[in-house]
Amino acid sequence: MAVLAAQALRKSYDGEVVVAGISFAIEPGECFGLLGPNGAGKTTTLRLCLGLTDPEAGSVELMQRPVPAEARAARLRVGVVPQMDNLDPDFSVEENLLVYGRYFGLGDSTIRERIPALLEFAGLTARARARIQTLSGGMKRRLTLARALVNDPDLIFMDEPTTGLDPQARHLIWERLKQLLTLGKTIVLTTHFMEEAERLCGRLAIMDRGRFITEGSPRELILRHIEPHVIEVHGEGTARWAGDEATRLASRMERSGDTVFCYVADPKSLLDSLAQQPELRYLHRAANLEDVFLKMTGRELRD
After folding, report:
1. Cα separation of 287 and 84, whole Å?
2. What is the mean pLDDT of the chain?
3. Alpha-carbon gap, residue 114 to 152, rounded angstroms
4. Count of CB atoms within 10 A of residue 270's CB?
5. Which of 14, 127, 181, 266 has its Cα between 20 and 30 A from that of 45?
6. Per-residue confidence (pLDDT) for residue 248, from 0 to 100
7. Positive or negative, the Cα torsion across 196, 199, 204, 206?
């Protein structure tokens, strides 16, 4: 039985369609990723699923309850990590957990029993009595994650959980999320980090202009949409080389600034050509999820 199911979900603002009839179902224990450029409709989709925004059409069932009609009851079994930290600066680390747990109707004794494990999970045991202003960005993000678990949720929504973090903090949060999955928790994740999605998501959808444009596991999407080898070429003379050799040898070619991306099934001919062009610099790598994302949504900047 799906823990979250949406059918023909639709929402507009000021006549502009933001969510355009999407349907999906998320099974217990999976990590489902929702990827897309800015303005694609990801956050609105999460708000619709949580019952924080009413849909114009379609239906949502959250924890087998209709949303928004029974959203409050459904959210008792849900944790949310918002895009921006909204910790209370007037409280200490443990007080933030205590006060938040009360919103779920939990007694203080129950919450206090859970706090040590939550602090250990977040790597904040030594900071239990610290004020929020004294925490680093990574600590605040880990506390926000721990706070989302205070009600022992079955389903956790995470809206860009590692944005703005340094690599060390990001990797630590990834490990914590993997731990949650091994415990049988279900995660709905939005992210702009393609590596994050590849590491964590068993299945994902790429969303643009309110619609799902492709869906599957990271590996399935790479195999379905992208040639297996990518060669990135840059340096003086790239445009000339691309117009002569790359056009002839590459299965597909894209340009972004002064870099040419060549996509091929067999890289040998292109690499042989580049070996004769010492003024050019290049990187040969395997195709990844970011290649899929850029192919499906374009390379132009979104505001």
Report:
1. 31
2. 93
3. 9
4. 22
5. 181
6. 84
7. positive
- How many CB atoms are located within 10 Å of the residue 260 CB? 24
Under CATH, which number does the domain 227-286 receive?
3.30.70
Phi, psi of 46 (to 5 degrees): -60, -40
Asked if the model's pLDDT at residue 49 lies above 70, the reply is yes
pLDDT digits (tens, 9 = 90+) for 232-272: 999 888 888 888 777 788 889 888 888 999 999 999 999 99
pLDDT (average), residues 18-34: 97
Is 207 within 8 Å of 40 (Cβ atoms)? yes
CB 104 within 8 A of CB 112: no
Q: What are the residue boundaries of the structural domains of the chain, listed by start? A: 227-286
Q: Which residues pair with 158 in a beta bridge?
A: 81, 189
Tokens of 67: 């949303």
Residue 301: pLDDT band by 50, 70, 90 thresholds? low
